[in-house]
Amino acid sequence: MLSHDRIWSALDALAERHGLTASGLARRAGLDPTAFNKSKRCGADGRDRWPSTESLSKVLGATGASLDEFMKLVQGDQPVADTGFPDGAFPPQTGSIPLLGFAQAGSGGFFDDGGFPAGQGWDVVEFPAAPSNRPGVYALEVQGDSMMPLYRDGDILVVEPGAQIRRGDRVVVRSRDGEVMAKVLNRQSAKSIELVSLNPDHPNRSFDLSEIDWMARIIWASQ
């Protein structure tokens, strides 16, 4: 059956077969690097987005895969990974999600272009079924007291990249300079965002969108 989930899972499996992330597969096919990111698979209105036939044709040409091979992946005749991680770094585990410290999150190689987990070096943490069943969800461990009094050192924040973000939501933001911060979204325009600090001892921040690598909503916190 040509379902939305199976088509995207087949693309993920094809990328994994070639040691690529979804972004890497898109680049190899000559497409926008974010074309296959999980954040692009649903529209802002919640409707499913499907890859175009032109995109699929370019992917098959770039990987040397035949249409028959791709359809076998779609039909599930071969193992299909839907972990969001290259090289099988994170096999599916019920109730488990990838975990990374805030200090490490600012380093390169841990996220793809859409802000989804990628690469090696992640730990794994057990979490309730509701967050863990959402595609791309991961956890960040608070380090230090910069987020007091709301979040303490050692607290775990569950983050959902690609989720719709509204004013007043608590978010994790990564700048293109590698700075990672947890803030409250105060305002977002077509060109900039304004963030309110969780700690009154730390200033509020404003950024041009060109300065932001990605922003993801915090959906759960251990406290």
Structure characterization notes:
There is one protein chain. Helix content is 22%, strand content 24%. It is globular and about 60 Å long. A 9-stranded mixed sheet has the order 2-1-3-4-9-5-6-7-8. It folds into 2 domains: 79 residues, Orthogonal Bundle (434 Repressor (Amino-terminal Domain)), CATH 1.10.260.40; 135 residues, Umud Fragment, subunit A (Ribbon), CATH 2.10.109.10. By secondary structure, it is an alpha+beta fold. The protein contains 6 helices and 9 strands, in the order H-H-H-H-E-H-E-H-E-E-E-E-E-E-E. A hairpin with a 7-residue loop joins strand 7 and strand 8. About 8% of the residues have low confidence. It holds the Pfam family Peptidase_S24.
Features:
223 residues; 9 strands; alpha+beta; LexA/Signal_pep-like_sf; 2 domains; Peptidase_S24_S26A/B/C; 434 Repressor (Amino-terminal Domain); Umud Fragment, subunit A
CATH class bucket of the largest domain: Mainly Beta
Mean pLDDT: 81
Q: Order the strands across the largest sheet as they lie in space.
A: 2-1-3-4-9-5-6-7-8
Total domain units: 2
* Rg (CA only): 18 Å
Q: What is the CATH fold-level name of the largest domain? A: Umud Fragment, subunit A
Rough outline? globular
Order of helices and strands: HHHHEHEHEEEEEEE
Q: What is the number of helices?
A: 6
Q: Percentage of helical residues?
A: 10-25%
Distance between the amino and carboxyl termini:
43 Å
Unreliable stretches covering 5 or more consecutive residues = 78-94
> Structural class from helices and strands?
alpha+beta
- Strand proportion, as a percent range, falls in 15-25%
Give the name of the CATH architecture of the largest domain.
Answer: Ribbon
Largest sheet: 9 strands, mixed
Number of strands: 9
